[in-house]
Amino acid sequence: MKVNELKIDALASIGPNPILVDIVPSYIYENGHRTEKLSGYRYVVALPAHSLDKLSVKIEGDKMLIERSEDEFPVVEFDGLEMSLYWTPTGYQVSARASGIRRCEE
Question: Has residue 79 got a pLDDT over 90?
Answer without folding.
Answer: yes
